[in-house]
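Researcher: We're teaching a course module on how sequence relates to structure. For the next exercise, students receive a sequence and then see the predicted structure as tokens, so they can try to spot secondary structure elements on their own. Here is the exercise chain.
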Amino acid sequence: MKLKISLVLLLISLVCFVRAQDASFSQYYGNPMYLNPALAGSKICPRLTLNYRNQWPSIPGNFVTYAVGFDRFVDAVSGGVGLMVMSENMADGILTNTSVSGMYSYRVNLSKLVTMNAGIEATYMQNKLNWGKLIFADQLNNWDGTANNLPPTSETPPDRLSLGLVDFSAGLLLGYRERVYGGVAVNHLTQPDNSFYSNGASKLDMKMTVHAGALIDMRDGIRSGDVEDLSISPNIMYQQQGQFHQLNLGLYLNVYPFVIGGWFRHNFENPDAVIALVGFQHEKFKIGYSYDYTVSRLTNITGGAHEVSFAWQFDCGQKTIKQRAIKCPRF
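Model: And here is the predicted structure for the students to work with:
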């Protein structure tokens, strides 16, 4: 019982420390609009995406994140539109976050070979704190050791246990030959107050993401028709939020209909995780599973992280499509 309480207290302290950072997906192209709002409508035809991430499952009170998104290109507005809903459950429900985001991505052909998407995003998020699940030092000091019999705390709860925020983000995406791509996104442009205390000041730090990569056919380079038959895709992503820095380096290997991938995630202060992915893709859908093996000082006693992504690509119908999709990775 004491060990379990100690682990929960450790997790609570970690929650308080990392809450200033957004959720992170290893399969970041599997949740494209979360990566960059400029990716809304990037596949032209309607697309549905589903994501699940379970981080540190071996520790009581792990972090679980769900996301569902839908996007498509709309000729009438010369760009892509998208809707995304996310839910985070942290430390067995001590902290929960639910957000709803709408995106618009304007698309313009800069030349016959170069395409640009410029995206904007508006988000409403609801943060909730379950005060009754918190354990404080005075409770442990007065505890008689009996299971499930912790005394009440003298700590005063914050004046609001539920907090609603309005947030805005923007992004830019460039594609060359629909095979080479790169983008930048800036989230939390207004840095809204994220404190449960009305007289507190806990701004949600602005997050900057830079990502780039290419799809290279093993036979014909970037000029081929369907590069997913036999291709490699090197990728890089850099993120910064407050004092937190992160770099992802990795590679996908596509041997249709299978995909395997590997990444190394480094947080500059220390290495974080080695990530392995296996996926199956079809003309209409894809499904991928990845595992994060923790190499930081936390070690893999945390259980690492499991992540699953799924996407369904709908037909565009009888309508003639004038735009071409940017072939970013599916995972």
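Model: If you want an answer key for the exercise: The two ends are 40 Å apart (CA to CA). Helices lie at 2-18, 32-35, 137-141.
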